Structures are given as structure tokens and as C-alpha cells.
Amino acid sequence: MTARLIAARELAPDICHFEFESAEWPLDFAPGQFVSLTKDGITRAYSVASPPSLTPDLKTGSGRFALCANLVQDGKFSPFLFGMKPGDEVDFKGPLGTFALRRPAADSLFVATGTGIAPFRSMLHAPPDRKITLIFGVRHPHSLLYHDELQALADRNPDFIYQPTLTRPPEDWTGKTGRVQQHTFDALGDRQDLDIYICGMKEMVDDLRAQLKARGYDRKRIIYEKYD
Ligand SMILES: Cc1cc2nc3c(=O)[nH]c(=O)nc-3n(C[C@H](O)[C@H](O)[C@H](O)COP(=O)(O)OP(=O)(O)OC[C@H]3O[C@@H](n4cnc5c(N)ncnc54)[C@H](O)[C@@H]3O)c2cc1C
To answer: Does ligand 1 lie within 6 Å of residue 65's CB atom?
Structure first.
């Protein structure tokens, strides 16, 4: 299947939001799923950062999906993605994967670092059918991807709590600081009945899972996606 790049915009240094369209993109998919893109025999997975579009583009009949990706300077694939211009095409497969909201709905913690926010943006677009706390960790304020959007969502929905945390906070930062792991345990308190969704790089995901396991947390309630 082929997708055409419609637009790209910088969200933070070396991080872009890419909008694609494809006549083969399904209108419905489970928020949280990913696509795999292939160029010159190299395939990489990217979480879909947009919600299901439900209606095709009226002019082209195509569906649209968005990705949020990090440029890995000497990476094999992401430099190609960042070099794409509107109108350029790429082969893809998807939607794929099982990182999706569980049913029946249980109150949930979403834990993301960096571009790991992508699948949660897709999941959060429809009004949540459960109480959700999102703990989003990055180094600097400018790397809080989709910050205004997430803050606006939290402002109008009492069932959604947004907790950004910075590991390199500037002096005037009044929000949370430090790694997502500690804030996850603070948000969890004594509860054992929350579904915990984790997405980001391997080190964070493995570390948080190990800490949850050490505290005897039910592993069936830990749902995760690792980026490397
Ligand atoms: C299911 C799944 C979903 C993914 N979704 C996304 C996504 O939504 N956005 C995204 O940017 N990446 C995502 N990735 C990672 C992506 O597939 C690539 O690994 C990444 O773009 C680097 O590819 P590359 O060929 O440029 O680098 P490679 O030549 O493969 O070099 C790998 C290096 O890149 C590092 N790396 C991998 N991913 C990232 C990242 N996101 N940020 C910084 N360093 C990274 C690895 O640790 C390793 O050091 C996902 C991976 C999986 C398995």
C-alpha cells in the first residue's frame, strides 16, 4: 500500500508531525496501533498519532493518518522520513499491533516519554470512557509534544488528568520534575485496579515494568509498546 505525504510540521527540534493520505487507509482502526513504513528494503514502525478519521477526504476519497517521529541523525530510516516533501510517497502496511484500549474500560494511567506520546494522542481524541491520568516525560519544556492540545483536553474534561514532567526543568518551571517512573507510583497510590499503558523507549518501558512487577502489580494490567 502507498501513502502520500500531505504536510509536515516541526513540533520540537528534530521531532515532526507528518500527515499522510492513502486511498487504502481504513477509516476505522484501534487508536494505539502503528503502521510500518518501507523504503529501499528498510522497514520501521511508527505509532499512528491521529484518531480514526471516520470520513474519507471528499475530494480524493482517501483516508488520512498522522505520525509523530523523532529524527535519529545517523538512523537508517528516519532521515528518509524527514527528507520527504509533500507529494512524496512511501510504502506502508497497517494498521498493525495490539497496543489499544482494553475493554471493559478500567481507570487507567498512560505513561509516555518523548514520541511515545503518539498512540496516546490517538486514544485521547475521542472523549475517554474511563478516568485517565497521562504522565508525559521529556527533558525540556519545548519537547512537550502536543502540550497545548493535551492541556486543553484536561481543562475541559475532569476525567482526564495531564501531568507533564521534565528531567531538565528551567528555573521558572512550576510543574512536575524527574522521571515518569516515580510519578507513576505517586499516581497509583495503593490502587491495584488501574490499567497501566506505557509507551516509549525500551529503557523506560523495561524499567517501569520491572518496578511494577517488583511491587506485585498484576502484569495483565500492564500494556506496553516499546520503540526499540
Ligand atoms: C511498534 C513501534 C512503534 C514505533 N513508533 C514510533 C513513533 O511513533 N515515533 C518514532 O519516532 N519512533 C517510533 N518507533 C521507532 C522507529 O520504528 C525507529 O526505530 C526510529 O525511527 C529509528 O529508526 P532509524 O532507522 O532512523 O534508526 P536506526 O538506524 O534503526 O537506529 C536505531 C537507533 O535509534 C534509536 N531510536 C529508535 N526510536 C527512537 C525514537 N523514537 N527516538 C529516538 N531514538 C530512537 C534506537 O535506540 C537506536 O539507537 C516505533 C517502533 C516500534 C517498534
So the answer is: no
